[in-house]
Amino acid sequence: MYLSRMKTKLLLAVALLLLSSCVSHPDVPTSSKEAKCQPAIFPDYCDVTVPCNIAPLNFMLPADQYEVCVARLTTPDGQQQTYGKGVKVQIPESEWHKMLGASKGKSIKIEVWGKKQGEWLSFSPFEIYVAEQPIDEYLSYRLIEPSYVAWDYMEIAQRNLTSFKETQIFNNEITMNDKTIGQCVNCHSYQNYKTDNMLFHVRLSNAGTIIVNDGKISKVNLKRDYTISGGVYPSWHPTAKLIAFSTNKTRQGFHTANPNKIEVYDLASDLILYDVLTDSVSVICEDPDLLEVYPTWSPDGKYLYYCKSVPLPEELRDKDIRSTYPKIQYNLYRRSFDMASHNFGEEELVYDAASHNKSATLPRISPDGRYLLFAEGQYGCFHIRHNDGDIVCLQLDDADATLRAQIGEETPSDIDLSKLNSQGLPDSYPTWSSNGYWIMCASRRDDGNFCRVYFSYFNHGKAEKAFLLPQKDPELHVSLLKSYNRPEFMVEPVKISVNEFSRAF
Amino acid sequence: MSSAGHSKFLRPLCTLLFGVAVLLFFGLAYPHHLHYQEQYQLFLFDRAYVWEIVRLPGGVADLLGRFCTQFFLFAWVGALIIGALLSAVQLLTLQLVCWGRLYGLSFVPSLLLWLFLLDENALLGGIWAVLLTLLASWGFSRLPNGWLRRILLLCAIPVLYWMVGPVCVLFFLLQAPRPKRATWWYYGVFVLLAAMLVILSYCLPVPAERLWLGIHYHRYPTVVPVLLWVAALSVFVLTLTARACHRWVCAPCHFIVTPLSFLLVAIGMGCLVWNTSNFKAEKVMRFDFMARHQQWNRILATIKAEKPKNQIGVTVQNLALAKRGLLADHLFDYHQNGIAGLLPDVERDATSPLPTAEAFYQLGMISVAQRTVFEAQEAILDFQKSARCYKRLAQTNLILGSYEVARKYLKALQKTHFYRDWANETLPLLGNEEAIAQHPEYGHLRKWGYDEDFYFSDHVTPEMLESLYFNHPDNSLAYEYLRAYYLLTGDRERYARLLLHTSMTR
């Protein structure tokens, strides 16, 4: 009996020891010097608005300046808890989600102390506002070194945004049968945020487009003798088994003395429509002199939005595109779409970016159809490589503003995205969450080279301060030498495993 | 002296002789192969890095291989490690069976592994896989027969497979039951092993064939490391042979027969090793090594003794000549390969662009050097990163003012053993414009950088060199290269103009 009690006590002690080694609830310093400023935490989560289901916003103080960091989180119901181990604050998922639940529509107060050269500093507290609206549970992206031409390992991964779980959708190793030419996987896309109908491309070795149609996987070749390439930038029709693609002849140039470093441009690009059920490809538009790219459907599927270049001045038309490229600008257009006949209507100008000496790319319509997001820079179609690349939002249901935009009078400044955009570094690939309350973009704002995913709360035409995709170890964003490419929201995970995909080859 | 005494004395001596031979071979004849190996990996003392390796079958052997390979930065240490590993393989092979008069055959697996390592893309993880398998086999051979042994065997196979990869099949073969004993459990284990691999091929996101043939025994993922497999399976075949000839061979150790059998195998296999060695590649690697460590005087001494003809050798030779201001005047004293020997077009491989990138870097073409190094690193076929490339990428980003990117590379290098000090010394330079301007290397390279922006591609044009030189006439290296470029292309007009310009400005 005595031995049995001893064993139980011992087991409990071990369990407690294990638990205490996992979660650190340190004491708040008894005395400290007031820093009179908010802490310079990484990622910067000071006064951000977050979804009510987001993973813990773990953060850290700079390791080269501080020895220890302690944070005290206070929820509106007065509950408090402290965290901190070394310079990092890592909050257990279950405790964090309880705090989010108690703070919905309100905010969590965060007080931070940092120990610097043996002395404790107390920073001005900040708030994390918890929106009542959740974010889509999943996010997918391609993880790749920000490369020039060559690449090595790359993967399309999916991340549960309510936790830190990341799994692989596909990688470029499993079906690569010729290592000398390599394999590239890219441009994952989903129908209406769901994953039963999705696609991604595989280029070079074992090339093709992997299409999942109601859960069935097939590899198709989208190249036809009347198209300039296979499908490139995709957009699933929200309801029909149709995918609009651009077809591109893409090239790259490398700068010697330009902070933009790499230029990606098209020699030619058109738009095609792929019918998944009949495996047929029809051309949407193929102006031989102009470049059409980045198709995207309106949420009701009645319009196809896209970008099209503006004709170059006569004197530049026959010149090498590498010298004229800084003059190429894209406007936003749309065409109506008839579901019954699969016919497109006449082209309509939606936004005349060129009249502001700008170039607009990657349009995305909000799920309620009221707003149009896109990336804008001074020229070209690849703003994720342009330091002036910013996200812009237009209100589509404001007929007057749209009209003014068409005739070049409107500027898109009426919806202020200054809290979303970075200063002087590329922001691009804007996307809406399925409920329209969250804007996501890829940004090189942290170092100018490695893309990271940022989210911003959007409500009644107002965007809040953007916050970085949370990680279990906040240092990951510093140490990871990969870019997050083409982030896409999903409401459910991709259920097909890497190996199942590989069997389609 | 008794036979036992001979054995005690002769066998360790033979193993020692073998180990010393390996050491001398890799230390004296093949050192740059070891440097080559080291430069295509980045061993990090980091939990995430270790997990990425050990989570796959063969991961432990791979990790040990990578750990040892980082020491190849110093060729003699690398040679010592290889010598010790191959000697250990021989000693473990020796323990498996009574070799008697066939004692020399116990060296065959080690010699085959030596042959395997002659290939610069053969990875040390393969050697560790064989060694750990033999170690497990030796441990098992000491267990008594019975249920405990069978249960442990059942558990050991998946564990060993995860540790060393499919080479563990050798362990399974060496546990083959003797005739007239129950074999049903043995074949049961075999079925289990096969079933495990089939299941894994459905679960793990790696190509199925690599689960059967080895995930990381060779840098080329699609190459089947035949020699490694032959070496591993030779242990089984040779032990079978020794057992079959048990009566004849299992005589006590003889002071003539034992060393004779060793000598026969050593001479035979030694000749094979020597004839299979790729000394041409070794010479090329030596040039790359000397360029990497900026040993310009040593390069000049080397080309004086033997003029290189391969592309890397010529590129490095021209760089060293230019660094010493001798290129244009002595251009045709050496073999040239047109302008391709000066600044060759960047190819899509991990080796040839690196010396070219060194020339770009020295010339002040920093963004071009950065791209070239990056492309070379991305071309490493087993998806590893390179400490050499990380170092250069940190430097180019520092010179170009991309401090946060440089910091990322430096932070990674801080997690290495041999590059940590350099990273610690370089980190304070980030953002410190004054210190960079005064730095003996980065200061002038930043000053010589391109002022005007234009696109560059895989091919260097004379305009790229002209822009360097005419904007910064103190860039003597650009002057040497530009003169050489005109001489090699026969562009007399531009050559004359250059000389005129120089005489007016100097």
Architecture overview:
The complex is a heterodimer of chains A (505) and B (506). In chain A, 10% of the residues lie in helices and 41% in strands. Chain A is built from 6 helices and 33 strands. Chain B has 506 residues and is mainly alpha-helical. Chain B folds into 2 domains: 3-276, no CATH class; 281-505, no CATH class. Chain B is 69% helix and 0% strand. Chain B is built from 28 helices and 1 strand. Chain B has helices at 3-29, 31-39, 47-54, 59-69, 75-96, 108-117, 124-141, 147-164, 169-174, 184-203, 208-213, 226-244, 246-249, 257-276, 279-292, 296-305, 311-323, 327-330, 353-363, 366-378, 387-400, 403-414, 420-426, 433-438, 442-448, 462-471, 476-489, 492-505; one strand at 455-456. In chain B, helix 5 (75-96) runs antiparallel to helix 6 (108-117). Chain A binds chain B through residues 145, 147-153, 168, 171, 173-179, 253-258, 261, 263, 322, 446-450, 478-479, 481, 497-499, 502, and chain B through 48, 201-207, 220-222, 348, 365, 367-368, 371, 374-375, 377-381, 383, 385, 402, 404-405, 407-409, 411-412, 449-457, 464.
Q: Quick one: which chains have the greatest interface?
A: A-B, 38 and 43 residues
Total discrete domains of chain A: 2
Number of helices of chain B: 28
CATH architecture of the largest domain in chain A: 6 Propeller
Short description:
Chain A is mainly beta. Chain A has helices at residues 2-22, 93-103, 321-324, 399-406, 476-479, 498-502; strands at residues 33-34, 48-50, 59-60, 68-74, 80-83, 88-89, 107-116, 119-122, 126-130, 138-144, 155-160, 166-171, 183-191, 194-204, 208-213, 216-220, 234-236, 242-255, 262-275, 280-285, 292-297, 303-309, 330-338, 343-351, 359-365, 371-377, 390-395, 427-432, 438-443, 452-459, 462-463, 467-468, 483-490.
